[in-house]
Amino acid sequence: MSNKVSFRFHSAKSPFGVSSSVKSSKKLVIQPLKIKPTLPAQFESESWEKLQKAVRAIWNSERIDQSREELYQTVEAICIHRKGAQLYEKLGAELDALIHKSVVGVDSTRFLESVKDLWTQHCRKMLNVRNIFNYLDRSYVMRTPAASTIWEVGLNLLRSHLAQLRLNGRLIEDLVLLIRSERNGEERQLDLMYSCIRMIVALNLYQSDFEPQFLEETASYYEAEGQEYIQKTDVAGFLLHVEQRLVQENERIQNYLEQRSRKPLITNVESHLLAPHAESLLDRGLHTLMGQKRLEDLRRIYSLYLRIGRLSVLLQKFTDDIKEEGTKLLNVDSPGDLVARLLEYNDTLNDILQHAFESNKDFAFKLKTAWEHFLNLRETKPAELMAKFLDEKMRSQKGLSEKDVEVVLDKVMQIFRHLADKDVFEAFYKLGLSKRLLLRKSASYDLERSMIARLKGECGSAYTNKLEGMFKDIHLSDDFMAKYNDYLEKQSWGRHIETKVQVLTTGFWPTHPPQNVVLPPVLQAEADKFVAFYMKTFQGRRLAWQHGQGHCVVLANFEAGSKRLEMSQFQAMVCLCFNKQPELTFQEVQAETQIEEEELKRTLQSLTLGKQKILLKQKAGSKEITEDMGFRFNDAYTNPKTRIHINTIQLRETVAEANKTNEAVRRDRLHIIDAAVVRIMKTRNTYAHNLLVPDVVSQLKFPVTMNQVKARIESLIEREYMARDEEQPNVYNYLA
């Protein structure tokens, strides 16, 4: 095989279109060297001597004689001549000796500071060494799998020498103690901690050696701290301390610890500082915090308990506290006091739910169930008092704008949703609405309609059908009275009394016992005119007068002049009796008017007591009206006003009257239960008892017991709407 290398050159066309021809090709022959080149005998030793001297100068922080470029080229030359392995081995041995010397020189009296300096100097020196031997890293080390980079060699040697001198264990212990002192409030040494932790991470001691010991110390520290703080601080202070500790530990992660330690470290704090005291903290302070509406502290409780997975404990304590506090609030019989306190409590709970508990759905549901629990403990009383509270608000706004009253109505509706006895509320609300409409005492018809719209949206149109019917009656009555007045103007009856009659549908309005009184001739004549016109307009209808709901304006002539007296119809009837003679006895007034005895006594009291004494009685010092008492017209009555309102003695609603309304609701409920049973049986025709009772309960919108349903079933059996099956007593058959 020849060692010659030959090249041939052929002719080619000129790029400018002029051809050049060469008759024969030329050959260039390269001959090998006759003598193979060899390295100088002292090249390797002299090169290493030069490099060793540079490494030692770096380690001793001395000046290097050669330039870094020259040293780099020396390393390159050694590697090119396949001496990289020998150079790698010699460098490792040299670094081993130098690092050992550095580790031995650590000052035990200022250990952490000395280790920090060791690490700082080690990194600086190894960077310089690596720069000089960079070609060795990129050539020999990359081609040798078992070989570590020069930087890794330095780390491995440093770790090895620290372990040999048992300094790594002391380093970790001192770091843990330094963190403890930092937790105790001593001065933080962030730069020192950062450098030492970076060293531990680089030496692969963080996860295996430092972190387990650090987390164990953390658990012990916070467990002891929790036991100490729970004894000497209140709930709010303890929770604030926990929150501050969590912030501090997060800062510790940001400042010098590894991010991988965040989750185990924070979990350690939560599980040892807070979790063991979760229930006792709520027992001690949740009620106070909720009662004082300390939203920031409650927000802190929620966020911390969410972190430790103990929201279920907070949820239960929250529910129990609402039930307990709500039960206390119900021990009031005044409508204003009870509902005002309930509204205030509802506002507090809503603020807590929204701003402290982040409108959590579970807490919202428990809040609803807690309201339903305590609000219905007193059966029908809360519903009754809420209706009376609204009656007071609708009568007088007391300086509030309609917008303010609308806000109150919205708040009342929030509580109304939790009422089980909505039919009781409807009965009492209808009673109050009827008085407001008939006596023109309502502050605003727009507010009245707005409230009915709210009730309709909450309970449906069937619930407000009668309430809407009452408004419709008032509107129709106004229209009818306009027609009646036009009719009177066309008649030739001469002078007549201005009359306004309100015709009410019996099924819409609360029922009042009829009072058969004898009207004065002047009033009876007007009543007869209206009845005649009404019957002519609406044939087949029947009118029943409710004289107890009427009002009159009476012109009274006194010595000081004439006055217009605004009074009830019964007061007017009594006053008109004294047109015939100035003095009358109780029996004479009753005989002429036929007003029921107790009602007449209240009427006479209103005319003889107080500031507006239209009548004088014989026994001036007595407040009671007796049957043998005499009365006379007070001709000397004076008042600077020309139009005077005479108050009536309002009969305060007694327990018996409230019971009467509740009894009416109870009777209505019996009919509703009967209708539900019949409706189900008519659909099923044959149905088992244990299926019928739950179906009936599910269809009712008011609370009812199983025994009440059973009693109505027995009543229907007695009335032959249904019958027991002869073969199966627990099965009912519908009787068509």
TrEMBL record:
What SMART domains has UniProt attached to this entry? CULLIN, Cullin_Nedd8
Gene Ontology BP terms: ubiquitin-dependent protein catabolic process
The source's superkingdom equals Eukaryota
**Pfam families annotated for this entry?**
Cullin, Cullin_AB, Cullin_Nedd8
- What PROSITE patterns would the database entry show? CULLIN_1, CULLIN_2
Query: Listed GO molecular functions?
Result: ubiquitin protein ligase binding
One GO CC term of this entry? Answer: cullin-RING ubiquitin ligase complex
The protein's UniProt keywords, in alphabetical order, are:
Isopeptide bond, Ubl conjugation
> Which positions fall inside the Cullin family profile domain?
381-608
What InterPro entries does its record include? Cullin, Cullin-like_AB, Cullin_CS, Cullin_homology, Cullin_homology_sf, Cullin_N, Cullin_neddylation_domain, Cullin_repeat-like_dom_sf
Q: Which PANTHER family match?
A: CULLIN
Instruction: State the similarity comment.
Output: Belongs to the cullin family.
Q: What is this protein called?
A: Cullin family profile domain-containing protein
What species is given as this protein's source? Pinguiococcus pyrenoidosus
Read off the lineage from the record.
Answer: Eukaryota, Sar, Stramenopiles, Ochrophyta, Pinguiophyceae
